[in-house]
Amino acid sequence: MEKSKRLYIIGAGFAGRTLAAEIVKKKIFGEVVAFLDDDNEKIGKKIDNIPVLGPIKDVALLLRTNPADEAIIAIPEASREYLIELHSILKRAGFQKIRILPGISQIVDNDAHFIQTRSIDLQDLLGRNPITINLKESLSYVRGKRVLVTGAGGSIGSELCRQLLSGGAARLYMLGHGENSIYQIDRELRLLQEEGVGEKATLIPIIGELKDCDYIDYLLSKLKADAIFHTAAYKHVPMMEENPVAAIENNVFGTENLLKAAVKHGVKRFVHISTDKAVEPVSVYGISKYLCEQIVLDAGKNRQAESDTNFVIVRFGNVLGSRGSIVPLFQQQIEKGGPVTITHPDIRRYFMTISEACSLVLKTGGVGENGGLYLLDMGEPVRIRELAEQLIRFHGYEPETDIKIEYIGLRHGERMDESLLSKDEMPALTDYSRILQITRKTPNNLDINKLLDELRPVCKFDSNNPDAYRNSKQLLAILNQL
After folding, report:
1. Which residues in the chain come in under a pLDDT of 70?
2. How many domains in the chain?
3. pLDDT value at position 455?
4. Is residue 126 included in any domain, yes or no?
5. 49 shares its domain with 69
6. Is 277 a residue of the active site?
7. What is the domain range of residue 456?
């Protein structure tokens, strides 16, 4: 950033003061002109020679801002309602650039850094009030340990890596098959380290395919990982409908390969990330994730006495802002002037912010029992039309007047509403906020190993059954028996 930039820090608490001290010390980000705060005990005073102005809603409108001025919201514990109010105030005050520190769950010991700030976006203003999770406490089970994250370049995987870095993992293995995405998260974490975020974890980027059984076995024999967070999967519903064999090969057999290698090489904790689309699935993607759940549940149920691997599943719905979610698509459509396309005016989905989902995943990974299936409390489902309207207004336009909304109909594999539980599942409260444990009313009689044996020749060439290889009709016939 240019040295001439004037910075206003919103919040004169510990995070704001730490941020200001770093900016003053480095002298490269700009000049901290003032703190804005609502605390009467601070207003009118100076902190480290920086004036504290307030109340925010009054003083912000009196500021003479220019396009180079920037506001930084440094209130990690702020509620969504308050952030919405702050965003509106700062926009009316003329701030074109508004940055924000991450949620409280990502700040360890109040240690805030400028590099952690980013431009505020819609996901910061949606969803529920953030839950306060002490990362250092939650991640005590991986502190000083070796941790492998699959799909580390994806939205969930990369956020897990950020929080694991802050939580004290000793070695962080970032596995993915996309060279660019793994490069990006590796580079980001190294920059965070350079700026003092987290501890001295050793970062190791790894390019590889879960589908390659021999490679995964070899890899885990070398890594000596203590814990695995398995987020990797093909996720795009319509695309997987067009490529069903790839979905089963990557998601199902990739999970089987990873799980078997984890058991063989003494991984202590295996945390599998699942989705609401695995509940009574109607798409190939959903079926693939349902089968992954069954593979992990079966491993937990049949864990050998000599094995101390704990298998945990965490299921949740959509996350705001992920690469495969509708929010980036809506943003692209708005930027080109619309229309914003929605499948149906009444379609609804459960949403959670990426940071909250990952904090709860990491918490569940530590407290979950072997063979446990856990559900993150997603709150109430959100009507997609309302989400689109909020996003249009966030960008300064009016729905239908400036940006049109069009309905394109449900695509194959989609349904109006997603359920977080099947008819045979019951949620039970745990000792931890927003984490539920799922139990079944009746036993699941699916013979997962028999089913996998039927699917195997479709995904892996078998000279004794060559006609099955890549035969999507045969694959769908097998899946339709479920």
Report:
1. 1-4, 103-111, 127-132, 305-306, 321, 323-324
2. 3
3. 98
4. no
5. yes
6. yes
7. 448-479
Q: Are residues 297 and 246 in the same domain?
A: yes
Shared domain for 24 and 62, answered yes or no, is: yes
Query: Could you tell me if 177 and 77 lie in one domain?
Result: no
Active-site option among 145, 277, 289, 363 = 277
Do residue 48 and residue 152 come from a single domain?
no
User: 424 and 454: one domain?
Assistant: no
Residue 35 contacts residue 62 (beta carbons within 8 Å): no
Contact 334, 340 (CB under 8 A): yes
pLDDT tens by residue, 97-146? 999 987 644 555 556 788 888 888 777 777 666 666 777 788 899 999 99
Which pLDDT does position 2 carry in this prediction?
A: 45
What is the tens place of the pLDDT at every residue in 375-426? Answer: 999 888 889 999 899 889 888 899 999 999 999 998 888 888 889 999 999 9
Residues 82, 221, single domain; the answer is no
Same domain, 178 and 286: yes
pTM score above 0.90: no
Domain assignment present for residue 128? The answer is: no
User: Residue 205 corresponds to which amino acid?
Assistant: P
The answer to whether the beta carbons of residues 259 and 300 sit under 8 Å apart is no
Question: Which of 89, 120, 151 finishes a domain?
Answer: 120
